[in-house]
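Q: Got a minute? One more chain.
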Amino acid sequence: MLENNLKNLIKNYQPNQAAIDVVRRTKIVLLVGISGAGKDTVKRRLLEDNEFADIVSYTTRQSR
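A: Always. Here it is, folded:
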């Protein structure tokens, strides 16, 4: 029952226009590389430009 309700909710979900507009104009940049490759340096340089913002993730999961 719960699974069907969730499937219907996902199937029928429609975000409002403001949310659609935010997603359309948002640039996402992924920095991937081995340790010491300079990802943090590139990130700091990008953040100097007002076109970019840092996204901080958060979880309630206990630390390992």
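A: The first helix runs from residue 2 to 12.
Q: Perfect, thanks.
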